[in-house]
Amino acid sequence: MQAFEYASPTSKEAAVKLLASEWGETEVLAGGTDLLSLMKDQGSAPKRVVSLAAVKELKAIEYNPSTGLRLGALVTLRELLDSAEVRKPYPALIEAAEGVRSPQLHSMGTVGGDLLQRPRCWYYRGGYGLLAQMDGKSLVPDGENQYHAILGNSGPAYFVNPSSFAPILIALGAKVRLFGPGGARDVSLDKFYGTPTSADQREYDLKPNEILTDILVPAAGGAKMAVYEVRQKEALDWPLAAAAVVLNLDGKTVKSARVVLGHVAPTPWPSPEAEAALAGKTVSESVAEEAGKAALAKATPLSKNAYKVQLARVAVKRAVLAAAEGGA
Amino acid sequence: MSRKKDKPRKSAAEAFSRRDFLKGAGVAVSGGLMVGEQVAGATPPEGATQVLGPGAVPITLKINGRPHKLNVEPRVTLLDALRNHLDITGAKKVCDRAACGACTVTLNGNPVYACAVLAIEAQGKEIQTIESLTTGGKLHPVSAAFVEHDAQQCGFCTPGFVMAVKAFLDKNPNPTMQDIEKGLGGNLCRCGTYVGVRQAVLEAAKAMKGGKAHA
């Protein structure tokens, strides 16, 4: 890790003043579990690190049954798990936090940090840049791509979005509040992520001198919800495929559904196909299975990750069934 | 060889330590890095945030109940501060990427990966390391249960595991086996001693409820 200047401002206004307007000059430090690892691998070498640890306003959890939930970006996974206010109306947010199977990461990791963590692609982590390129050509299609994207992977990006919370937050219609020198702006989380076309872009719509301050989740309004993750091992690891489902039911009939997949594409992957397959139906094993098939109908697996297609189908199916059975 | 007066371990086995050799060899190099040193206590202009580093800055860490003053660059992790600056080497450096758990210590009672905490950010917190668990030659119930149930093979993951188990049992005094499997997902043992570790956790939970002395 290269040497850097360190500052720990006490307000978001002071924090953004310390940030540069170009990527690479400065980094924002929250829980540190991703950023410091990336810096040790020379994936980032900022001249200055701006810590948000002392910005107290970023640690709030506010819930109002009619307007919904405001999560400060610095709320830790532990604080989320311990929050009765979150657990009852948004059980799937708790499931997403539990999916991060490390108590240490629960203590350290933040909700904002989860949304902004960089991809786990081992070419990226190994120094080949966000697009995993050597001599202008991606190493992924002919390489070790067993954990890479199966959707939205026409290139040049093949990594998968690593966030645990983004799929369920998108399914819940959440926004993120970003604060920069010009003030705050709200961005719908489903518009926040993008697929970069060059290695110096980021995979989300955050400017170098902005910080993510809040996650705003609408009132759940009695919706049923669940997250289902398929993982290689039960201990700490990122899922191979995940699905988040929010169902608005009329009796047993689905009035409307939101289905968002995770770890299958460079962005969280909403599936209007799965949502259409559920609308108007009574949830059953076969209906849930059809939703899974619909979600993956356009999958284009790479040479070594066709297995992820079936895992993602099953994740959708099980998330649909779990949501219908329980979940708020 | 320069040995600190406040060295935490003083057993006979320590009299000839490879760490002392390594430390001695590093003195000439670290002496040259003092140029960028700053005074952390200097008052910043009003309204401005103080920017520290990139050279070494003085910090104070409260480790196992005792304050330690040291000079570190802001990039130094808590793990490196413990091991390389204070010679508190119980927390192990394995992945150094917040993934394996060998460096687990607690901050204000919460388990953390010391490799992913900047030392400068651990100031003002109660840092507890494996060194604090054995007092007066008496093993903590968690450590004793690890011995009893053969919960280690090479032993390199053990200090981190023991600290993770202690933090877990402090919050979950009556765990089921399922709780244990869920609650210890942040530590890896590549020798595969998980069966012994789980038994040790159950045993330690009983012993700690039994009122045996523990830190």
Task: Please give a structural write-up.
The complex is a heterodimer of chains A (328) and B (215). Chain A has 328 residues and is α+β, with helices and mostly antiparallel strands. Among the domains of chain A are: 56-116 and 161-217, Uridine Diphospho-n-acetylenolpyruvylglucosamine Reductase, domain 3 (2-Layer Sandwich); 224-325, CO dehydrogenase flavoprotein, C-terminal domain (Enolase-like, domain 1, 2-Layer Sandwich). Chain A is built from 13 helices and 14 strands. In chain A, the strands form 4 sheets. A 5-stranded antiparallel sheet of chain A has the order 4-5-10-8-9. In chain A, strands 11-12-13-14 form a 4-stranded antiparallel sheet. Chain A has a 3-stranded parallel sheet with strand order 1-3-2, with no helix packed on it. By secondary structure, chain B is of the alpha+beta class. Chain B is built from 6 helices and 6 strands. Chain B has helices at residues 18-31, 78-85, 141-148, 158-171, 177-183, 194-209, and strands at residues 51-52, 57-63, 66-72, 104-107, 110-113, 126-128. In chain B, β4 (104-107) and β5 form a beta hairpin. In chain B, α3 packs across α6. At the A-B interface, β1, α1, α2, β3 and α6 of A face β1, β5, α4 and α5 of B.
- Major sheet: arrangement of strands of chain B: 3-2-6-4-5
Mean pLDDT of chain B: 83
The CATH homologous superfamily name of the domain at 54-132 in chain B equals Beta-grasp domain
Report mean pLDDT of chain A, rounded to a whole number: 97
